[in-house]
Design goal:
The protein is an alpha/beta fold. It has 3 domains: 153 residues; 188 residues, 3-Layer(aba) Sandwich (Rossmann fold), CATH 3.40.50.1460; 273 residues, no CATH class. The protein has 22 helices and 29 strands. The strands form 8 sheets. The chain has a 6-stranded mixed sheet with strand order 7-6-8-12-13-14, sandwiched between helices.
Length: 715
């Protein structure tokens, strides 16, 4: 499913800030979630942005596709390159810090609740402020968590397009204008275009103005592409069509309007700092445009065109093709830093972005003509008793056949997928108020490395303990020392009994995923519920692809295998943390005669050997169906950097369960769930929240009918 996010920024970056309107909508609903907020003015960010693009970027002296005034370069190229990288890092940090402003934070948190990593997300930044359009939106940390999200620029005011219906054609009609190309290689652009499927390109090479105008009037075009030199003069986009002529958009106004009226879908200006072009082209209501945010080096322009058109023509959506092309530009980071910041998609919100196949496939189909068959004589009627006997016998045969197939496990996969859909269709839950997530994001790992050193964790734990949390769960494997500070880390566990860490009960991976040997040897076996080590193993269902986590294991019997492991705890990490919350609330944890867990008066029934869709569970370990909160982010989240730099208020930590873990798909595998892929730290938070809600009676266990009940329903 595709979601649209509209982020409307009404105001300016340097003086008054922005009145923010956030809209989140999906394709299957006519309604949108609308929230209001504010972003403050950020003069320092604006200054850094201007300095980065106008001074550092142009000072690199790359062969740009633009006519510029002569630039005097100071210092060696390597020095300018390093200064550029430092400038880019400063802009990115200031930009992300601005988007974490207190007045915008509720909207940021709600975005993380409403969006799922598996969804394609079209993110429209709507503003009239010129500096907003220069901001590096692809570098927003939010996009690190959503691999199918891509941003586009859009004006605050827009009108529906008035183009005529598209006439079915067998090829994409592409007008290619190759303008003045002195010093750049446009033949590479030509080669890429000629290799596209189902395309009929028309090339105008260093044309005159009249030739362009005649081509735009002569026939409908699906895509217009321009390559060559261009510039922004007096806030207006100018393109150099040949060595002697340049034209502004106003010179082609009537011709371009005709092209839009005849069905133009996409305009690509693979040339200059094209925001000047986009500003004027918006008035023409061109549905989609791709321009360059700033001066673009020749090689970057060529590679982007190749990556984008190959992805778009192979079936990717317009937004996905943009994201894939930008990410592939990262391969050029050493020579062309921030290359992925340059391409910009400009979108008219009133128009649905087309796919490549929409530009050439036939859209009209003949209506099927119904045929009328002559009436067939009815067979002689049987007695009512015979009809019922046959009906009952047939239904019994069908019921036994279905249940037999189900008993053998052949229906497990479709039933589990249907279960996932039901889980997603529930109303959205609120955040778990008892839990705070402290996550190591991609930005944190750039500063503090991965994995985090023991000394850094010791400092983090000390700061968190000062705010008096109920418990702290360390959802990171610490079997071996990491850097300096091992003694300080172990001392935190010795001094604070409310600390819990996890391990994996597998002797073959003890050297990486076992519990720290010092903690394993010091565990107090007389009070297992309140120990400091719990297993963090997650049991995914391999009947569906991708393997999906739907069950939560609370405890199991120690086997010979696990007894040989450093992870000797038979109790889960989530149970350990939930038990510390229940101890403070006065909830008594016991077990029944059937060795099932009981929280106060509530008994947690373990899953039997056959339960619902499952036909081959072990029936011994205490496990439940995990009743996820209906959102990918179960609790409020802060970053490790924010805690270490003192940006988190103690009230946010006090009397909560704090769970520390990694949220970075580049260094830690995400686990697939019915709600999309999640990092382990968030899954553990879902599990802890599930147990707490069961204990206080606010969230019931997921139950299923017994096998005989299912058989009765099928019959």
């Amino acid at each position: 499913m595709t979601k649209q996010v509209w982020l409307e920024l009404d105001g300016d970056l340097t003086q008054s800030g922005f009145r923010v309107t956030l809209e989140i909508r999906n394709q299957i609903s006519a309604y949108a979630l609308i929230l209001k907020g504010h972003l403050p003015a950020a003069m320092e960010l604006a200054t850094q942005l201007q300095n980065h693009w106008h001074d550092k970027h142009r000072a690199l002296g790359a062969p740009y596709r633009i006519k510029t005034k002569r630039i005097i370069h100071k210092g060696t190229f390597n020095r300018r390159l390093e200064e550029y990288k430092v400038s880019a890092h400063q802009v990115q940090q200031a930009f992300n810090q601005w988007l974490k402003s207190d007045s915008f934070r509720p909207l940021y948190d709600r975005l993380q609740q409403e969006l799922h990593p598996q969804e394609e997300i079209h993110f429209l930044i709507r503003s009239e402020d010129a500096l907003v359009k220069k901001l590096p939106w692809p570098a927003w940390e939010l996009f690190d968590y959503y691999p199918k999200a891509e941003s586009a620029l859009s004006p605050l005011e827009f009108e529906p397009g008035n183009s005529s219906p598209k006439v079915a054609t067998e090829q994409v009609r592409l007008l290619v204008i190759l303008g003045h190309s002195e010093g750049i290689n446009v033949t590479k652009d030509v080669e890429v275009i000629q290799q596209l499927p189902y395309v009929k390109p028309t090339f105008l090479i260093e044309p005159k103005r009249t030739e362009i105008s005649e081509a735009l009037w002569s026939q409908p075009w699906d895509i217009i592409f321009f390559a060559g030199h261009s510039a922004t003069e007096n806030e207006q986009g100018v393109i150099y069509i040949n060595p002697r002529e340049s034209i502004a958009i106003d010179d082609l106004w009537l011709s371009l309007r005709q092209a839009v009226n005849q069905g133009l879908q996409l305009a690509i200006f693979n040339s200059c700092d094209g925001l000047g072009l986009a500003q004027r082209l918006n008035d023409l209501n061109i549905p989609q445009m791709i321009v360059m945010r700033e001066l673009v080096p020749d090689r970057v322009a060529q590679q982007f065109l190749k990556y984008f058109l190959v992805s778009f023509s192979s079936g990717q959506s317009l937004y996905q093709a943009m994201r894939l092309a930008r990410e592939q530009l990262d391969e050029m980071e050493e020579q062309f830093p921030c290359a992925g910041w340059l391409p910009v998609l400009c979108q008219n919100p009133a128009v649905m972005p087309p796919r490549w196949r929409d530009l050439y496939r036939l859209t009209e189909e003949l209506d099927a003509v119904p045929t009328i068959s002559p009436p067939v004589p009815s067979p002689p009627s049987r007695s009512r008793r015979q009809v019922w006997q046959r009906l009952i016998a047939t239904s019994l045969v069908v019921a036994f056949s279905v249940m037999g197939i189900r008993w053998l496990g052949f229906l497990e996969m479709p039933e589990l997928l249907a279960f996932d859909q039901l889980m997603r269709s529930r109303p959205t839950d609120s955040l778990a108020a008892e839990i705070l997530l402290v996550e190591a994001t991609p930005e944190d790992t750039k500063v503090y490395n991965y994995p985090l050193e023991d000394g850094t964790l010791a400092t983090l734990l000390k700061l968190l303990q000062a705010a008096n949390p109920i418990a702290i769960g360390l959802a990171m494997h610490r079997a071996i020392p990491r850097g300096e500070g091992r003694e300080q880390l172990l001392e935190e566990f010795t001094r604070n009994s409310n600390l819990v860490t996890l391990c994996s009960a597998n002797p073959e991976t003890d050297h990486l995923h076992g519990a720290p040997e010092e903690l394993s040897q010091s565990q107090d076996q007389s009070d297992q519920y309140q120990g400091q080590v719990g297993f963090g193993d997650l049991y995914r269902d391999n009947e569906t692809f991708p393997w999906t986590l739907r069950r939560q294991v609370l405890s199991y019997q120690l086997t010979d295998t696990t007894q040989n492991s450093l992870c000797v705890s038979p109790y889960s990490f989530s149970l350990r943390l939930a038990a510390k919350w229940m101890a403070q609330q006065g909830t008594v944890i016991t077990t029944t005669d059937n060795q099932e867990w009981q929280f106060g008066d509530i008994v947690l029934r373990r899953l039997p050997h056959r339960y619902g869709a499952y036909q081959s569970l072990d029936g011994v370990s205490n496990q439940l169906l995990l009743n996820y909160r209906n959102m990918s982010q179960p609790a409020q989240q802060v970053t490790i950097t924010e805690v270490l730099e003192g940006q988190v208020q103690p009230a946010l930590i006090r009397n909560r369960i704090v769970i520390i873990g990694t949220n970075n798909s580049y260094v830690d595998s995400f686990i697939n769930t019915p709600h999309g892929a999640m990092p382990t730290v968030r899954i553990q938070a879902h599990m802890v929240s599930h147990l707490i809600d069961i204990a206080r009676g606010t969230r019931s266990q997921i139950w299923a009918m017994p096998q005989w009940g299912d058989a009765l329903l099928v019959w």
